[in-house]
Specification:
Helix content: 40-55%
Largest sheet: 7 strands, antiparallel
Strand order of the largest sheet: 4-3-2-1-5-8-9
Number of strands: 9
Number of domains: 2
Number of helices: 13
Strand content: 5-15%
Distance between the termini: 47 Å
Radius of gyration: 24 Å
Length: about 400
């Protein structure tokens, strides 16, 4: 009987979620667009530039998908570099789509609207061709990514728009009826998956939040004087906090990681979300390991700091799914910011996850990453050996 009730509750949630995404598509598929006036003096030239840029982005996104699907065929985790490139491409597309929507909203029943709508149809069809067929990527995109200003259900809305407005083959993208049936089935499956994904994340959040309430009073002052003189912008810090009960439930030795931005600011993903922290707030642990990339070019460091700060405001990833950058853990923050490093990962519960121990273990293998210092309440070791760190990780 309980399972029957759960089935009906699940269907009700899916129905409500579906209703929430059914906006009017008469003038596009974005839920909100800028209201600033747009110059139409050279509209035809602007549309031509949009089309050229859209074609370039379509080629680029196809190349990104080829790289992603190559990894998928080899049953390897997605690299952060591919995910960052994917959302950077989507952001560039989104900027153009916003302008096209603004044309539609600002100039109804005008030839400009016709041109804008045709480009929107073409754009949605390109998304269909490049992304819709890949279940994992489709779901990743539809969860959104605030680091790139991509809202949830962006891809889903574009595809719904494609089916609603497409009535002939004038745009050059004929759609077969079986493709529409496939979309409806995919949409239902994705909504069902999201319902379960959200529910399981909520359960994990409740458990983690309850556990986090048990801890001793932190004493960061004891660590700040040792930690701060050693740090440089871009450094990765792995931390262990024996005074927190959550430390007992995180796999491995280290329970937390963060990136130092400079100017006495850290960026870290904690249970409350991704935030910047001062030394007093951050240095609450009792063991610290500082990792540094020894050959960072200035442009690489700038990109690391930019990517780190772009994650601010993201919620904590209670799913511990490294391939879903809409929400992140402390280790996933490092994975995304240092997207040129091939980080070690574990495969658990049907997903790839990265832990602070994976970060330290990768540093052992990667000659570009060096250990600057390890210290705790009883020891202070400059440039600890790989063997010493390996022993910590296996204890």
């Amino acid at each position: 009987m309980f399972f029957n009730y759960f089935k009906y509750i699940k269907l009700l949630v899916i129905f409500i979620v579906g209703l929430s995404s059914c906006a009017s598509f008469s003038d596009g598929y974005l839920s909100a667009v800028p209201t600033a006036p747009i110059d139409i003096t050279n509209a035809n030239e602007v549309f031509e530039q949009f089309e050229i840029e859209k074609e370039r982005l379509a080629i680029e996104s196809a190349e990104i998908m080829d790289s992603i699907e190559f990894l998928q065929k080899q049953h390897k985790p997605l690299r952060a570099n591919e995910l960052n490139r994917l959302f950077l491409n989507l952001k560039a597309n989104y900027v153009i789509d916003e302008k096209l929507h603004l044309f539609c909203k600002s100039y109804p029943n005008d030839s400009l609207t016709d041109q804008a709508e045709k480009l929107l149809i073409k754009s949605a069809a390109i998304y269909n061709r490049n992304f819709q067929h890949n279940k994992k990527i489709r779901r990743i995109i539809n969860r959104g990514n605030i680091a790139y200003s991509i809202p949830p259900n962006f891809l889903k809305a574009s595809q719904t728009y494609l089916w609603k407005v497409y009535k002939d083959e004038s745009a050059g993208y004929p759609i077969q009826q079986n493709q529409r049936r496939n979309f409806n089935r995919e949409n239902y499956d994705d909504t069902s998956y999201l319902t379960w994904y959200t529910f399981s994340g909520f359960v994990s959040q409740v458990i983690a939040s309850t556990i986090s309430m048990t801890h001793l009073e932190p004493q960061p002052e004891e660590n700040i004087s040792q930690l701060m003189p050693l740090l440089e912008p871009g450094d990765i810090i792995c931390q262990k906090s024996r005074n927190r009960l959550t430390d007992k439930f995180i796999p491995g030795y280290f329970g937390h990681s963060a990136i130092y931005l400079g100017n006495s600011l850290f960026v870290e993903a904690i249970l409350e979300g991704t935030v910047t922290s001062n030394p007093h707030k951050f240095a609450e642990g009792d063991s610290y390991l500082i990792i540094r990339h020894k050959n960072l070019a200035p442009v690489q460091l700038e990109n690391i700091l930019r990517l780190s700060q772009a994650q601010l405001g993201k919620k904590y990833d209670f799913q511990y799914d490294s391939e879903s950058p809409d929400i992140i853990t402390c280790a996933e923050l490092v994975y995304i910011a240092y997207d040129f490093i091939l980080w070690d990962m574990d495969y658990m519960a049907g997903r790839y996850m990265i832990t602070p121990d994976n970060i330290a273990n990768t540093a052992i293998k990667n000659p570009e990453l060096i250990f600057i210092s390890y210290f705790d309440k009883t020891s202070n070791i400059n440039y600890p050996s790989d063997a010493f760190i390996q022993k910590l990780l296996t204890n």
